[in-house]
Design brief:
2 domains; binds magnesium ion; Rossmann fold; 15 helices; 7-stranded parallel sheet; alpha/beta; binds adenosine-5'-diphosphate
């Protein structure tokens, strides 16, 4: 379906075409008409399927020419990075409209607080906020929500994972009862249903193929002992000279630093990002990577959800994520929308069973390859190897 088949204002259609969007994605096709009809909505769609535009476009359409005198829309998101990104997308889509927006998030210096407070008093149409910072502003009476018409919860599953359930309830208690509420999520855990029945009113529900990375991602796994991982990724990055944008995920902050050190020695432009960095540093690192000034970014899962970086060509999972859903999110950073991408996971002996669980979740068997012999010997694929080897050893020991 083309965007001009929706009943949207010309200014919005023009901005969409400037953004280079031609056809609506499936979630957009289903969500936009329902939102225009003022329905509450529960929408589930995997990462990278265009959920942001699915809610921004119809909301902008509804406020297009009614520059109100107070806050019209509140969008709650889990992280600062996502707040900034969504705010930027709103600015793009509303380029030809008088609508304005602001991102409200913590971690900056005191001057942010002043700017944010001013913007909140100056009748900003759309606020994109993280829960904690929003509550600080609410506590000092900075925000008036009497005229609010739309509440959006983006990455709702992630917010619940991060323990924001009560904060969200608290924020909602400040909002008018009569409003439109939209909840977007990549997964459908039971807690979402609980939240939904607490704050949505007779919602329509849309679910589009959950828990599968986009089809254009070429996925592969390498069987690799822990001590061969760094030499192997060095080899991989060396080999793929034409890959300008490579994202490496690992589960812990300590490993981010260790991997960055390993790669910097080889003279790649490499940076690391984790919650250890100050907010301003995180933004600098992320924008250098987005602008392709940094070739390799090493990250923890803080950035695997929701953040959209164009044209990442290679994702490397340095380790198997503990949570199978995180795998889908990490891999979802490549091949976003229409592009193609490669995602490679390094599996050591102890992670085989966990990787098997991921394959079950995504209902796909991923090809497993050995690392080149000059780097080391690959362990054999045996997802139960941990238990079995233990037993075998015991048996052998007994025989001795
Ligand atoms: P999600 O929130 O579902 O993870 P995003 O809204 O971040 O996904 O969109 C993923 C990427 O796809 C973004 O780069 C966005 O600009 C792009 N995109 C979204 N909708 C379309 C579309 N209809 N046509 C082309 N690109 C799109
Ligand atoms: Mg999103």
């Amino acid at each position: 379906m083309r965007f001009d088949e929706f009943d949207l204002h010309d200014e919005i259609l023009e901005a969409i075409s400037y953004m280079g969007f031609e056809k609506a994605s499936p979630i957009q096709e289903k969500a936009i008409p329902l939102i225009l009809e003022n329905k509450d909505l529960l929408a589930f769609a995997q990462t990278g399927t265009g959920k942001t535009a699915a809610f921004i476009l119809p909301i902008l359409d509804k406020i297009a020419h009614s520059k109100g005198d107070s806050i019209n829309t509140l969008i709650i998101v889990p992280t600062r990075e996502l707040a900034i990104q969504i705010d930027q997308q709103i600015q793009g889509f509303s380029y030809f409209l008088p609508t304005n927006s602001i991102a409200i998030y913590g971690g900056g210096d005191g001057s942010d607080w002043v700017t944010q407070s001013k913007a909140l008093k100056n009748k900003t149409d759309i606020i994109v906020a993280t829960p904690g910072k929003l509550i600080s502003h609410l506590n000092v009476g900075n925000i008036k929500f009497e005229q609010l018409q739309h509440l959006v919860l983006d990455e709702a599953d992630r917010m619940l994972d991060m323990g924001f359930y009560d904060d969200i309830q608290r924020i909602v208690s400040y909002l008018p009862k009569k409003r439109q509420t939209l909840l977007f999520s990549a997964t459908m855990p039971p807690k979402i249903k609980k939240l939904s029945s607490a704050i949505l009113d007779k919602p329509e529900e849309i679910a589009i193929e959950l828990s599968k990375p986009a089809e254009k991602v070429l996925q592969a796994a390498y069987l690799c002992s822990e001590n061969h991982k760094t030499p192997f990724i060095n080899h991989l990055i060396n080999q793929k000279e034409d890959y300008k944008s490579i994202l490496i995920f690992t589960s812990t902050k300590a490993k981010v630093n260790q991997i960055v050190r390993g790669l910097k020695n080889k003279n790649y432009q490499t940076d690391g990002i984790s919650s250890d960095l100050e907010q301003s540093e995180r933004e600098n690192v992320l924008s250098a990577f987005k602008a392709k000034r940094t070739r390799v970014l090493v990250a923890t899962d803080v950035i695997s959800r929701g953040i959209d970086i164009k044209d990442i060509e290679l994702i490397i999972n340095y380790d198997v994520p503990g949570d199978a859903e995180d795998y889908v999110h990490r891999v979802g950073r490549t091949a976003r929308a229409e592009s193609e991408g490669v995602a490679v996971t390094l599996i050591n002996e102890n992670d085989m069973f966990r990787f098997k669980k991921i394959e079950e979740l995504i209902e796909t068997e991923i090809i497993k390859l050995p690392i080149p012999p000059e780097i080391g010997k690959s362990p054999e694929w045996n997802p139960k190897s941990q238990n079995f080897r233990f037993k075998n050893n015991q048996r052998k020991n007994r025989k001795k």
